[in-house]
Structures are given as structure tokens and as C-alpha cells.
Amino acid sequence: MSQPETATYRAAGLLGPSWLRTLWSPATNVEVVATGGRDARLDMFRGIALVMIFINHVPGTIYESFTSRNFGFSDAAEAFVFMSGMAAGLAYSNRFRSGSLWAAIARVWARARQLYFVHIVITMLCLAIFAAAAKWFDLPEVLTRNNISALFQQPLSALVGIPLLTHQLGYLNILPLYMTLLLATPLFLLVGLRKPWLMLALSIALWAAAGQFRFNLPNFPNSGGWFFNPFSWQILFVLGLLSGAAMKVGQRFIPYRPAIFAIAAAFLVLALFWARIPQLGEAGRAVLAGLADMGTPFYITAFDKTYLALPRLLHALALFYVLGHLPIMRNLASSAVAAPFRLLGRQGLAVFAVGTVLSLLLQVIKTPRQPDPLVDGLMLGGGILALLALAWLLTRTTELTRARSVA
């Protein structure tokens, strides 16, 4: 529901400059949500991220060429983590401002517990899918993918690692990250609500230290660390958390500044040209390689995903800043065109969990087949329609439950 624009919502730093509002949004007295309410843009962008994650989790189709990772340095994972932090800030911050501290902590940790059980369930379902493909459909090669082989090479160790989250299947490693960050959320909020810029400084320092000293949570039985290193990826979550907490009370954490907006937009254009023009990309990589040869740390010059290297981080932040300040986005988010994405975004956890299982099922189905735009399109399209149906059923069930409780 749209409501009149308020001064407090303007203060949240989400509206952009007045000349852009006048140019792109003639009805400047219309806002998506009231301060502290549900922001349609968050639901829309989260839904878009979930669709891109679903498509990217079925590799080998032409459709993954159209997802965001092909037009810059970051991908939907960065958006998912940032928006998860923002949603957490909106959902939990007020309880840390007043009321029982333990009740506030318990609510956050209850969500983390839910994520843990969802992760274990979808892990077992995906293992069952791959085992069935090998047993009944003569596809033993699927057992060598997605970090599954350890379960057969070291079954006892792998069965210890799965519940400890030290052994994560490929494409199933973002929920452990999210859960870990939620466990730390009470600390983030206790510091961030009192000293937000100190919290951000500590977050940046932790990100840099993780890259500099390469520390990570360990894997077992395999060597190495988590694919999504929580010590690195927390910076995006913390930024989202502080932004959501500020929005909840009609304030802003990162203000709008024309110079910052211009720099962020220019960086996005540079990243787009870098990604789409091979010659420019080669030249850019040569510059970064030169900096690396001079001793610049890898997390500054590389595109490493585990440690959320600086080019990926800057691209993600620039993208969030620009999209968050484009007035056209608030109109788009509340439009009928964006309704399917809003629906998916509102049921984010269920859509992500079911979408992950569906995507790995589609990986198995694609195994004996050559890439085919028509067949791949039907499979992906059917999967997205199934996710939309799931989101609609869950939303409708919630609405009916609330209506009965009111009556």
C-alpha cells in the first residue's frame, strides 16, 4: 500500500535527489511504505536475487548469461547477504532498543536455529536426489560433484562434518553463513545501536584481517575453510543490519551525497565495460596483477569470493547505493510488474530452500543431456513458476490465519 511521503522517510536516505524525483517520479508525494514498515523495494530485490540464484544453481544454460554476475564483479550472493542483514535490522533492532535483552537475543537465535534445521533438511534431500540418480538412473558421475564424494570416501567423517557445518555441499553453503551471522547479530546490534560507525570500523577491520591473515572457519573432513568465509562476508551483513536498524526509526545510516552517487554510478559503468569488453577486462586485470606484484594483498587485487575481495565488495556496495537512491525504483517496486518478485521476496527462506533442492534436481536431469535453450528454458521456467506457487500459497495461508485470528 502506498502512503504519503514523510520527512522521516526522506531522512532514511532512500529517496534520492529532488531533481531526479521530479524528473523520474512526477508523483513525488507517493511513497512505497511508511517509516518502519515493509519496504517494497527490499521484497522486490530479494525476489530478483532469489531468481538469479536459482538460475545460477543450474549451470550450463544460456540463461545464466543474463544474471547479474555477467555485468560486474559481484553476483546475487552479495545482494542476498546484504538484504538479509537489512531485513534483520528491520525485524530485530527495536527489541534491542527497549524491553528484555534476553527476549531480543532469543528471537534472533530462534531464527538462526530455524536456518540450521532448514539447512540440514535440504542437505539430506539433495543427497537423496544424487544417490537416487546414481542408484536407479545409472548416473554415478553425479556423486563426484558438489563436494559429495567425501561422503563415500570418508563416510564417518563426513557424517560428523555435515551437522557441524564443517562439510557443506556445493550450492548449499549460504545458509550456514547466514545462520552464523545471525548468531553474532545480538553483538552487532548491541554495539551498532550505540556506536554505529564504531561497529562499521570494527567490521572493516575484521574483513581486512581475515583477508590479510587468511583465517576462516575450518572444513572437516576436507581441508580448507568455508566457501563463504563469515569473517569476510560479515561486512555486507553488518552494513545491511545498520541500514535496516536506521530505517526502522526513520533515520539513515549512509546518507545520500551527489558526489558519492556519481562515483558509485561511474564504478558500475566501469565494471560493466570491464565485464563485457574483453580488451578492457584484460587491461584492468593487468593493472591489478601489477599491483599484486608490488606486494598489494590478494584481497585487494583479486576477485576472490571466499574472502569477498575488494573489487567484489566495492561493486556490490556501489550497486546497492545507486539502486537505493533511484526514485524510479520505488515506483517499480510497487508496480504490478514487480508483484511476482515481491511475492518471492516475502517468502525468502522457503523459496530459497525449495529452490535449492529444485535446482540440484535439475542439475541431475540435465546430466545426460546436451544444453538446449528450449528444454533448459522449460525446466527453469517451470521451477520459477513452482516457486511462485509456493510463495502464493504461503502468503495466502498467512493472510487467512490472520483473518481468522482477528475474527
Please tally the β strands and state the result.
2
Strand content: under 5%
The N- and C-terminal alpha carbons lie at a distance of 22 Å
Shape: globular
SSE arrangement, N to C: EHHEHHHHHHHHHHHHHHHH
Number of helices: 18
What's the Cα radius of gyration?
Answer: 22 Å
Largest sheet strand order: 1-2
Biggest sheet, in brief? 2 strands, antiparallel
What does this structure look like?
The chain is mostly helical and 407 residues long. The two termini are 22 Å apart. It has a two-stranded antiparallel sheet with strand order 1-2.
Please summarize what this structure is:
With 407 residues, this protein is mainly α.
List the helices and strands and how they pair.
Layout: E1 3-4, H1 7-11, H2 18-24, E2 30-31, H3 40-56, H4 76-97, H5 101-136, H6 150-153, H7 155-164, H8 174-192, H9 196-213, H10 230-248, H11 258-276, H12 278-293, H13 298-301, H14 310-325, H15 327-333, H16 339-346, H17 348-366, H18 373-406
Antiparallel strand pairs: 1-2
Helix pairs in contact: 3-4, 3-15, 3-16, 3-17, 4-5, 4-8, 4-10, 5-8, 5-17, 8-10, 9-10, 11-12, 11-14, 16-18, 17-18
Descriptive keywords:
407 residues, mainly alpha, two-stranded antiparallel sheet, 69% helix, disordered N terminus
